[in-house]
């Protein structure tokens, strides 16, 4: 799925493309992804709406067209393309602007595209319940330490709690924990003050470096850039820090990738990953 660094770059690239453009038509090719918050006829209601702004709200992209809004949550595999030749059979929605085409593609049909006015956005699950923006000035070490407090959540679970931190996904939660040298299943209340400070700095470092890398990569809009990650989806590969084989563990139903030598769980663990083949 597009995660925070991806969405930052997508937003940066779409704004100059959409500026000074007006919607000419909206073609809904896969109704399964559509959420009509007002119950109005979408295609006609948005015709002639001028693009005003695009903001990222956690994992959501919020497109503003005056008093009309479109919010897209890409979920697992949703993506965008500006290619007007994209085959309709592969699309969910085609937004046609004057002189510009924006496609929304989702092979698994798990993403959600919400249409409504500013008042109806309250109906979008989790949209108004995001925690501190990890890229904002509000994300201070003091705020982070206050949020992590004495919670007993596993560290990876805490990192992915969007009501607290907005917002880390699976890939970057793994990368942050690897950078901080913390096992994903370590309970937060077992972390030392030094661990917590290192975790805070790791969030800022991993996000900043990843955004910069994706910007410089300048891949097509629909391409998910992941060749810079160090542990995510790298099971059985050598750790880039120590050479130990990277492992995969289940953390509350989600795959997590880590180095068993660099990321030893505080207080020990049931499985000795370092001795397993």
List keywords for this structure.
277 residues; alpha+beta; N-terminal domain of MutM-like DNA repair proteins; Helicase, Ruva Protein, domain 3; 2 domains; 5-stranded mixed beta sheet; 4-stranded antiparallel beta sheet; 6 helices; disordered C terminus; FPG_cat; DNA-(apurinic or apyrimidinic site) endonuclease activity; glycosidase
Please explain how this structure is put together.
The protein has 277 residues and is of the alpha+beta class. It folds into 2 domains: 4-123, N-terminal domain of MutM-like DNA repair proteins (Alpha-Beta Barrel); 132-258, Helicase, Ruva Protein, domain 3 (Orthogonal Bundle), CATH 1.10.8.50. It has 6 helices and 13 strands. It has helices at 4-18, 42-46, 141-148, 155-159, 170-180, 193-217, and strands at residues 23-28, 34-36, 53-57, 60-65, 68-73, 79-81, 93-97, 100-105, 112-116, 132-133, 165-166, 247-251, 254-258. It has a 5-stranded mixed sheet, covered by helices on one side. α5 (170-180) crosses α6 (193-217). Mean pLDDT is 94; it is low at 273-277.
Secondary structure elements and pairings:
Layout: H1 4-18, E1 23-28, E2 34-36, H2 42-46, E3 53-57, E4 60-65, E5 68-73, E6 79-81, E7 93-97, E8 100-105, E9 112-116, E10 132-133, H3 141-148, H4 155-159, E11 165-166, H5 170-180, H6 193-217, E12 247-251, E13 254-258
Parallel strand pairs: 2-9, 10-11
Antiparallel strand pairs: 1-7, 3-4, 4-5, 5-9, 6-8, 7-8, 12-13
Helix pairs in contact: 1-6, 3-6, 5-6
